[in-house]
Amino acid sequence: MIRVAVVGAAGYIGGELLRLLVSHPDVELAAATSRSLQGRQIDGVHPNLRSRTTLRFSAEDELDHYDAIFLATPHRETMARMTEFLGLARTVIDLSGDFRLASTAAYEDYYGTPHTAPDLIESFVTGLPELHREALRTADRISVPGCMASAGILALTPLAHAGLIRGEITVDARTGSSGSGAKAGSENLHAERSGALRVFAPTRHRHEAEISQATGLPVRMTATGVEAVRGVQLVSRAHLAPDVDERDIRSAYRAAYGDEPFVRVVAHRRGLHRFPDAKILSGSNFCDVGFALEAGSPQVTVISALDNLVKGGAGNAVQCLNVRYGLSERAGLEFTGLHPN
Amino acid sequence: MIRVAVVGAAGYIGGELLRLLVSHPDVELAAATSRSLQGRQIDGVHPNLRSRTTLRFSAEDELDHYDAIFLATPHRETMARMTEFLGLARTVIDLSGDFRLASTAAYEDYYGTPHTAPDLIESFVTGLPELHREALRTADRISVPGCMASAGILALTPLAHAGLIRGEITVDARTGSSGSGAKAGSENLHAERSGALRVFAPTRHRHEAEISQATGLPVRMTATGVEAVRGVQLVSRAHLAPDVDERDIRSAYRAAYGDEPFVRVVAHRRGLHRFPDAKILSGSNFCDVGFALEAGSPQVTVISALDNLVKGGAGNAVQCLNVRYGLSERAGLEFTGLHPN
Amino acid sequence: MIRVAVVGAAGYIGGELLRLLVSHPDVELAAATSRSLQGRQIDGVHPNLRSRTTLRFSAEDELDHYDAIFLATPHRETMARMTEFLGLARTVIDLSGDFRLASTAAYEDYYGTPHTAPDLIESFVTGLPELHREALRTADRISVPGCMASAGILALTPLAHAGLIRGEITVDARTGSSGSGAKAGSENLHAERSGALRVFAPTRHRHEAEISQATGLPVRMTATGVEAVRGVQLVSRAHLAPDVDERDIRSAYRAAYGDEPFVRVVAHRRGLHRFPDAKILSGSNFCDVGFALEAGSPQVTVISALDNLVKGGAGNAVQCLNVRYGLSERAGLEFTGLHPN
Amino acid sequence: MIRVAVVGAAGYIGGELLRLLVSHPDVELAAATSRSLQGRQIDGVHPNLRSRTTLRFSAEDELDHYDAIFLATPHRETMARMTEFLGLARTVIDLSGDFRLASTAAYEDYYGTPHTAPDLIESFVTGLPELHREALRTADRISVPGCMASAGILALTPLAHAGLIRGEITVDARTGSSGSGAKAGSENLHAERSGALRVFAPTRHRHEAEISQATGLPVRMTATGVEAVRGVQLVSRAHLAPDVDERDIRSAYRAAYGDEPFVRVVAHRRGLHRFPDAKILSGSNFCDVGFALEAGSPQVTVISALDNLVKGGAGNAVQCLNVRYGLSERAGLEFTGLHPN
User: Fold this and answer.
1) Where is the Semialdehyde dehydrogenase NAD-binding domain positioned along the sequence (chains A, B, C, D) (predicted)?
2) Could you say which residues of chain C have pLDDT below 50?
């Protein structure tokens, strides 16, 4: 059994890590920390875990040493404390934004603050098995991408790396409310957020920088909060390289994802479920990717969807753990998702 | 023109008062106060009023004297400051809970605090024109019932007053999230509240006391938060007096509401819209009331619905103003509601 | 491996059976029938099963013989064909309404049609392991209760059987839209059903008869469609027998459910998650049960919730299969549910 | 009083026309036709109109002659019967798609069928007062744009006509379920549509052609069904002409909409309500338009929102009637919209 701890376990990403880890066949969840809730039972704030665990939140200074720790801590704080965290476990899997961008200039630009641990950045491997599986097999510093970033990277890198698209990519991202976390604020009031189509980041969303970094192409992304608790969907547009046709695109996706356990290509000619929709992905670790072409148009429209808390966060992190420790990559991540839901 | 002010205008009931008053043909909205937002434009927090008003929030000490003021202030504070408020206008229309219950014992029992202005209680007329129209024509102290209370009182008093029901009434109340107000708290986080069926008051909800007071019968009410921003629906059950049949019930409702502009009896044998549903009432001042009997059963099931911010609050208050000032009772309250919605 | 088939697999209950059975460690899903979709891949209408199965719908005349078949067929048709179904498998697990009521008079009363296979009724065991586990260990004809019935029976039988309540029970039931099945009709149009509080059965819902049969007490139930796809919640009220107090009720539930894998008692004094809420149960096989008392009141309010397609249908059926075939009762039913969701 | 009739009044656009017309101060609603519901009261399917009208649906052959008729009839049928309709009223206001496109080639391309009344196309004036007010003052054949088209045309024509943008425009459109009409089909089943992010038109949506026609620029639009009953929001992107800055864009919008009663420019630096959101527009005739620029980027992102049944359909049609008959342009269209909602 791999002995793990979750730091910052009271929030939504933290809770989702707990959900996956308590049911993981090869993992012992040894500790879950929360400053505000230490000593309290974790099923008090994560009621779906009732009867599944009797674990209580612990204080951070109660942590000892683990095979792996998961960091569901805020950006800024995470980089400030990373040296401390590295001392707590062989493997550190960071879900904050602090070690996602290789460029400190990009970090400062998108996060509005200088990076305070620049020497550590290079040691982190991007926690996306579909692109970095080999490196992850031996990685002990893993930085999991942002939720919308993962949906964009998985949608676009097969085309970008195969040279099928070029120039600027535009991304229209839609996200559920759990992406904002469990902090109460007027922006997350049910009466304000319910049914909203809130363009909260018309430009310059942080995840844009990750997609650009992974594809090597400029990206312009708009992010809208839609009526959903979980779920991210991206509609991306890119210009095709000359003479690229549908078969080339299908081939590129097949080459990239034909053997992947958690990426499915969904692009049908008709039906209710032609393209990826986050509605059926809640709780699952799938990222669905699809595309559409238009006769005579030089553009491709790519649609991708995932559960922001699972493949866009905690599930992806667990998948990285599975890769790192040589487990079945599906271990603890078998849930199919629900339909209807 | 009747010159009015709204005290506590930044919240949801306050905002709904502003919405109705800026469009009211016979009213001049002269002031809207907010401690936290004074000097700010009211359409900043009430964006539906963009282009309809340039009014700014004022401080309370900027108030002078008005024909009428509406109090959308918290309970406790309202009774503590009532003498001050009474000096500001000829007519005070209070939407807090402080002057709804005639009995100070009941108040203390349900609100958990002693009443601090007991001498004033008797001077308030209940702001429900369907039951108190004559008194309201000359009333200058008006206390508007609670949202669920209005739905319950309008549903049950015609039967209770006609002697058609007796014994204990049970009420199952469902309410949208706007009833909790605009304060951010974890209970109102979208991710927590969305899709919830939260039994937040299994017993002893405050509005229960108002229904009991109006019907003269004991009431046991359970309140559940359901997925909606606006809207209240009550399913009430009572035992019929001997030999009461459907005609008696229809007659009682017809006698009570045949001429009422804002209460409709909705009880069909079939169809999608057989019974009252708050879904089609958003923004309207209607309270719909319906009922069902069962062959051989001594019970009647009564269903009622309204928009908690309109007929359950601001709209009802404006209707009282109309009655008090001899205006058309429908003035400013003509919106029909939307279908579908 | 237990070899099973699902008859009527294109609908929502059928799809949920497929979801559970394709992931069940001890089951081989051998066939799934649909008249309208025979030959089509099952993930076309159940898109959550993409990459999890390549099974296609088969015609009913392609069925051979199985260890167990699950019937997700309409009432009336099910009883008319039961002899045929009994020939297809050792164990028949019926999810229709046809064999739930022991009394043919009650059946005719609630279903509006005479029972056409009265001789078979007695041979069916009620598919609710919490009440009928011993009989289910050897049962080859199993009738799974209705979704709201299961929530009511699990909530109320511990109190009824212990003699803690008496007289008439009133039940206020709320249900999501998936309970109406996958047939398109105006009552299920999104624009009509979204946000609705639709009292579709003010009296005489069929599931009422099942709760009455199980508790031995008269039941009056009202059913309301609320905004949810999955989920059932019941608020039930009953009169306490003399001298019954909170400890008695807790004891009764503890005795009934202390060792049950899928029933949790949820009754806290405070917090967002004081009482059962279907919101966190989607996809899980839990039925949560809670209660509230009021000082001085002779009533108990019981709240129960489940996912209508899982513990209210397909999950319950799989749990029965597990009991019947001596498997771990949790096999295939481990999903915890999501929070937030 | 202007005497009007609505043809095809049982659907959602028809119902919305009835809602606006029964409350219109200068209109007499003389007839509302429905083939399937003739003789039935209109509040049976439009329950929001209870107590507001006793009108019944009539057969089409009961129509006589009106000042104006509104056509809420399907495309194809509308052009086939247009000669007949033109004989029924002085003014025909068509809400179908048949007379929106000036080019019969574009019509055939987007609608998949040849135009059968090409000689009539030129006689229709586009029913968008913001662009065609002068022509509408005397127009007796008016073709109201599509819901997403109106949101796109109002967002983009001020920039296109001022030469501030050039090249291809991309549009990401999101729409509620009422846009699909009141016909029951599996695509509109609540269980399927609730919470969906369904990319139903990745390319070639019909409304794209209207935006292109109005702006004179190529348009590529993707349409996604989102969780909402009412509401359309578009996020459009275009390349700026050289040296265009924020002031130019604000000036163009001010010039276009400074005096418009129903278009508001909404583009704030911060706050929950920075950009247009359909959530607060339900029932209102507003189209809100906003935009965002990014330092160093040659693109502008334009956000627009409206209620698809009001400014995207019935409200726009009534506004055209007001212009044509010299009424106050706001007559019958005063509802502000709700917040929260």
Assistant:
1) 3-139
2) none
